[in-house]
Design a protein that fits this description.
About 75% of the residues lie in helices and about 0% in strands. By secondary structure, the chain is mostly helical. It folds into two domains: about 90 residues, Orthogonal Bundle (Rna Polymerase Sigma Factor, Chain: A); about 80 residues, Winged helix-like DNA-binding domain superfamily/Winged helix DNA-binding domain (Arc Repressor Mutant, subunit A, Orthogonal Bundle). Helix 8 crosses helix 10 and helix 9 crosses helix 10.
């Protein structure tokens, strides 16, 4: 397939996605997800994080397809820029929050350990334990899996059988609440 033909097809997909057509989104995903994963993997070196970057990029593409302007570049270039920027943001945020310094020295929880048991072990950090206790159980569970067990967002989503976006939102909101509580 010629590049200009592919570019036209991708531009058509983006136009249809802007109109809310899920079939166009599926076609675009099938055509570009592999390339985008390759870009993210080269930057992040970890498949789970790369998959997270690709997921975020496709959510952004779905939400912002109407903003694509062909005069500014190819559709593929636009999409690859989105995934590259997302991967770089993940890379920069690898220390995700100041809370990681507080949680790193803790004993790693075993897979068999209940997240509530892991929270109760945090007696060394009474303020953190108090703030974690203020969170609802589901968000607290996600935070404990991320920062006590060291799981990526993708791994947590897989383990809990919850969509990745939901996990990321829970953790983000929970970390903001913890930061405010500890502040």
């Amino acid at each position: 397939m010629k590049d200009d033909h592919v570019g036209t097809e991708l531009a058509d997909c983006l136009r249809d996605i802007a109109r809310g057509r899920a079939d166009a989104f599926r076609r675009l995903y099938e055509a570009e997800a592999g390339r985008m994963l390759g870009i993210a993997l080269r930057i992040l070196k970890r498949r789970a994080l790369a998959e997270e970057a690709v997921h975020d990029a496709f959510v952004s593409i779905w939400n912002h397809a109407a903003t694509y302007e062909s005069r500014l570049g190819s559709p593929r270039g636009w999409m690859h820029t989105i995934v590259r920027n997302r991967a770089l943001n993940i890379l920069r945020g690898e220390s995700r929050t100041e809370l990681t310094d507080t949680l790193e020295p803790l004993d790693i929880a075993s897979e068999a350990e209940n997240p509530e048991e892991a929270v109760s072990r945090l007696s060394d950090s009474e303020a953190l334990k108090h703030c974690l206790d203020r969170l609802e159980p589901a968000p607290r569970h996600a935070v404990v899996l991320a920062y006590v067990e060291g799981l990526s967002h993708g791994e947590i989503a897989e383990r809990l059988r919850i969509p990745l976006g939901t996990i990321k939102s829970r953790i983000r909101r929970s970390l903001l609440a913890l930061k405010e509580c500890l502040g």
